[in-house]
Design a protein that fits this description.
Elements: E1 3-6, H1 11-19, E2 24-27, E3 32-37, H2 41-51, E4 60-62, H3 66-70, E5 73-74, H4 77-86, E6 91-97, H5 105-108, E7 113-117, H6 122-130, E8 134-135, H7 150-157, E9 163-166, E10 177-182, E11 185-190, H8 196-203, E12 207-208, E13 229-231, E14 242-245, E15 259-262, H9 269-285, E16 290-293, H10 302-312
Parallel strand pairs: 1-9, 4-7, 6-10, 11-12, 13-16, 14-15, 14-16
Antiparallel strand pairs: 2-3, 3-8, 4-8, 5-6, 6-7, 10-11
Helix pairs in contact: 1-6
Length: 323
C-alpha cells in the first residue's frame, strides 16, 4: 500500500522515488497527478501500468519554469506570451517538440508535438529540486473519475504506487486548459481550469474549436467516467437516480433522488468546478444505476465542466471504452 505523507514532509522522499523510476502521486492546483521522470521510459511506462492507460493517449510534461520548457519545445512569440501570462497555472501548451529534448517518446505518444505545463505549489517545487520534467496525468484509473484529494487517490491507486503526497483538496478541481499553438491559429483541445476568454484576451485572437484527433490528454470520447450511467441536462429526475444539482432551482422530481449533491447552490462556476469530481465520486459510491445532472451554463469554467460531464456520459463498455 502507498505511504501517504503531508507535502511539508514529502519533498525529499518524493524526489528519491522519482530518481528510482517510481511514479508518485502529487498535489497540483488543478487535480492530483501521477508523476514520473519524463526522460525515463521505464518510469513513464509505470504510469501507464498503474493507470491502465491506453498508450496512444499522450501525457503532459510538467516543467519548473519557462527556461526548462524552452529546452523541450519550440516557443513562438505568442506561445511565450501565453506562458509568461499564465504560468505557473492551469494552462497546458501544445507545441512543436524540440529534437534532442530528452523527453521519452512514450510521453508524446509518437506525435511531433508535446504538451507542457508549469504547475503551482508543491509539484513545481518537486520539479525544480528534481531538475527534470515530470510526466504527470491525473492520478486515477484511466477513464475514471479524476481525484482531487489524497484520500481519493489512495482509494483508486493506493495498491499500485508507493507514495501519495497529501496537499489537501485541489483548489481548481478540474484539469488544465489545453491549447495548441500552431501557425494557423490557437486551438482549444481541452477546456479546463483557465477560462477560454482569459486566454483570448492575452492572445488577442479567438480560440478555434473542433479538433477531434487525440493530440493531448483528456480528448478521448469516454473519460472521467463513473461506474453509473449518466444523464445530462435533466429537467426531471427519475425515482432512484442520484442527482448532481447546480444552482438554486431544482429539476422536477428532485425529492425522489436517492441522493443529491449541489455543485454550487449559489450558481458559482468556480465552486462547481472545484466540487465536480469529488461529488461525482460520492454519488457513484451511493450505488445507484444512474446519475442525473442538472444543466450548467456553458460560459467561463462552465465550458470545462460540461466537457467533463459529456465525456463521463459517453457510451462505453465495461472496461470504460467507447462503444
Amino acid at each position: 500500500m502507498a505511504e501517504i505523507l503531508a507535502q511539508d514532509d514529502a519533498l525529499e522522499t518524493a524526489c528519491r522515488l522519482l530518481a528510482e523510476g517510481e511514479p508518485v502521486a502529487l498535489p497540483t492546483e488543478t487535480v492530483y497527478g501521477l508523476a514520473a521522470d519524463a526522460t525515463n521510459g521505464e518510469a513513464v511506462a509505470r504510469i501507464f501500468e498503474a493507470k491502465g492507460r491506453p498508450r496512444f493517449n499522450p501525457l503532459i510534461a510538467h516543467v519548473a519554469d519557462l527556461a526548462m520548457a524552452e529546452r523541450i519545445a519550440i516557443f513562438s512569440p505568442l506561445a511565450r506570451r501565453l506562458a509568461e501570462a499564465f504560468w505557473p497555472g492551469p494552462l497546458t501548451l501544445v507545441l512543436t517538440h524540440r529534437e534532442g529534448s530528452g523527453v521519452h517518446p512514450l510521453v508524446t505518444a509518437g506525435l511531433a508535438t508535446i504538451a507542457l505545463r508549469c504547475p503551482r505549489g508543491f509539484a513545481g517545487e518537486v520539479i525544480k529540486r528534481f531538475g527534470r520534467p515530470l510526466a504527470a496525468p491525473s492520478a486515477n484509473v484511466s477513464g475514471r473519475i479524476t481525484c482531487t484529494t489524497a484520500e481519493a487517490v489512495n482509494a483508486a491507486l493506493g495498491d499500485r504506487i508507493r507514495l501519495i503526497v497529501d496537499g489537501g483538496p485541489a483548489p481548481v478541481g478540474v484539469e488544465s486548459t489545453i491549447v495548441k499553438v500552431a501557425e494557423d491559429g490557437l486551438f482549444l483541445l481541452r477546456p479546463g481550469g483557465l477560462a477560454a476568454e482569459e486566454i483570448e484576451k492575452v492572445a488577442g485572437a479567438p480560440l478555434k474549436r473542433g479538433e477531434k484527433s487525440v493530440q493531448a490528454p483528456g480528448m478521448l470520447a469516454s473519460h472521467y467516467a463513473p461506474r453509473a450511467k449518466m444523464r445530462l441536462n435533466v429537467t426531471e429526475v427519475e425515482p432512484g437516480e442520484a442527482l448532481l444539482a447546480f444552482g438554486s432551482r431544482r429539476a422536477k422530481g428532485a425529492e425522489k433522488a436517492a441522493r443529491m449533491l449541489n455543485l454550487s447552490p449559489s450558481g458559482d462556476l468556480r465552486e462547481a468546478a472545484s466540487n465536480l469530481f469529488s461529488y461525482l465520486s460520492a454519488l457513484d459510491a451511493a450505488g445507484g444505476a444512474t446519475i442525473a445532472a442538472e444543466p450548467i451554463p456553458g460560459e467561463g469554467l462552465g465550458e470545462a465542466i460540461n466537457d467533463r460531464l459529456a465525456r463521463a456520459a459517453a457510451p462505453r463498455d465495461t472496461d470504460g471504452r467507447v462503444t
